[in-house]
Amino acid sequence: MKRLLFASACLLALSAAAQDNKITVSGSVQSDVLVPQNDEKTGAEKTGDVLTNTYAEVHLQHRDFEAGTRMEYMEHPLPGFENDFKGWGVPHFYVKGRLGHQDDGSSVAELTLGTFYEQFGSGFILRTYEERALGIDNSLLGGHLVLKPAKGLTLKALSGRQRHYWEWNKGLVSGADAELSIDQWLPSMQENNVRLTLGASWVNKYEKEDYIETPPVRRPTDTGYSYTTYSVAQPKFVNAWDVRANLNVGNLSLLAEYAQKGDDPSQANGYIYGKGSAAMLSASYSKRGISMLLQAKRSENMSFKSKRNVLGISSAINHLPAFTQDHTYALAALYPYATQLADGEWAYQAEMGYNFKRKTALGGRYGMNVKVSYSYVRAIDRTALTPQSTPLTSSLTKSNMAFAGTEGYTSKFFKWGDQTYYQDLNIQLSRKLSSAFKLNLMYMNQRYNKTVVEGEGGMIHSNIFVADGKYQFSNNVTLRVEAQYLTTKQDEGDWLFGLAELSLARHWMITVSDQWNNGLTDIHYYQGLVTYNRGAHRLQAGYVRTQAGYNCSGGVCRWIPAQKGFMLSYTYNFQQ
């Protein structure tokens, strides 16, 4: 109730200030509804008569002032959200003020009080954001200050408590960031289309000091073995820092970034004290007709939470990109990869796209685009430190790799570990065969370590084939058809997927699809949907049967159970 009153007061105050009626009102409504049914074959359960995740937000802006709020209703949430998001309330509310303007129109100073989102650099030590499909909202409640005291210089400072579903964690997250665009000071760099940005960040987590008792640790003695339990101190303060440089020369872009986190024994890393680190190099090149990307990342022990004794995706302060593609085709996304924050990983990604020109031997009449992408994720080298060789004055453990209360393990920076976590090689071809017909083809070879990502299942090797055709009958009628096939000898065996999508009169879309496991289970997962779009409104209704699995984005995943039933989805975005 206090949050609702605070948000209402902010909006009313801003409305009252808009005496000249030059106020901008924007917002959105999103409601996803499921009428569930039991399904013995898939394990889907009817957990209520009507389930919904509903969001409504509004933002008001007047000159240099802004305020906003968001209400969320999940008293009877969709499957996968019932264990943490059940309830309703106003978790997002803020008021923002701006002062002064630079030549580019940006504010010299900006202060936000309430809840806010922020990212430092690539997010290695701080990224707060909202992703509703995954149930992520790790916003901070407190104060956020942005200053631009000189040309090309941006300073940020923040402090707040992090959202943990319907509460805010008791710990405090504080930080500062500085970013300087060197080219803004050197006209010669601008004349030669050269841009250089340097950045540095610091984040501190404060949490009340605590102690944890380790399981009994076996030590050799003259007469056999003794078992001792140790008390591991969990520090009040954990500091992390990040430095980065981004150079752009014409069509070439280079990014180098390094981050380090202090001793942070937590449930995620098995209560060890070893420092965490993340290093990344990325190079990209793009001009008309061609694009290339090469990047590598090494991370270890980088799970960074505002509440140390929680697992999963909640209370995460930072984010490490997965360096794997977020595939949109159903079978290509069947085995998505989740970044291994605590264990660490070496991750590599390479992409190349090329457009063959029109009226050439390979380009044909309309031209052709080819894209090749490769991702590879490997374990880092880890040699466990046992109690026999290490004093129990520091940190972490994971399974049998190390012991709580020790430094956990040693690791050689450039040496790989003995496990492949993920590999993905895919080739995509897009070609317009006539003025009305366009064809997309994809082949993907994938290796997915299900034991690492999900806890069990071993290594899954799969080959995936996709054909996607789109035919435009007229300006108002378009038909798109997909056919996909995944073949593997592991897990549940082969899969087939088919989809037909008919667009009518610009506003209507009718979609039917079936994902069939013709291996172990012989189960069909089908959908029939009708979608209507009109201006800022979008309404979708239909009948669905979906399988249990992980829903992932950017290396962050949430487990979603099987579902069956009637569904309805409505979204509305407005501004006036």
How would you describe this protein?
With 576 residues, the chain is mainly beta. It is built from three helices and 35 strands. It has a 24-stranded antiparallel β-barrel. A hairpin with a 2-residue loop joins strand 14 and strand 15 (224-228). Mean pLDDT is 89; it is low at 388-401.
Task: Summarize the entry for a quick read.
The protein has helices at residues 2-17, 187-191, 450-454, and strands spanning 24-36, 51-62, 65-74, 87-101, 107-116, 130-131, 136-137, 140-150, 153-164, 167-168, 172-181, 194-206, 210-213, 217-221, 224-228, 231-234, 237-249, 252-261, 276-287, 290-300, 345-356, 368-380, 383-384, 409-410, 416-432, 437-449, 459-472, 477-487, 495-504, 508-517, 524-534, 537-546, 549-553, 556-560, 563-575.
Based on CA inertia axes, which overall geometry fits? globular
Beta-strand content: over 45%
Determine the N-to-C terminus distance.
28 Å
Helix count, DSSP H or I runs of 4 or more residues: 3
The chain-level structural class is mainly beta
- Helical content (DSSP H or I, runs of 4+): under 10%
Number of strands: 35
How would you classify the quaternary structure? Answer: single chain
Mean pLDDT reading: 89
Radius of gyration: 26 Å
Largest sheet: 24 strands, antiparallel, barrel
Q: Runs with pLDDT <50, length 5+?
A: 388-401
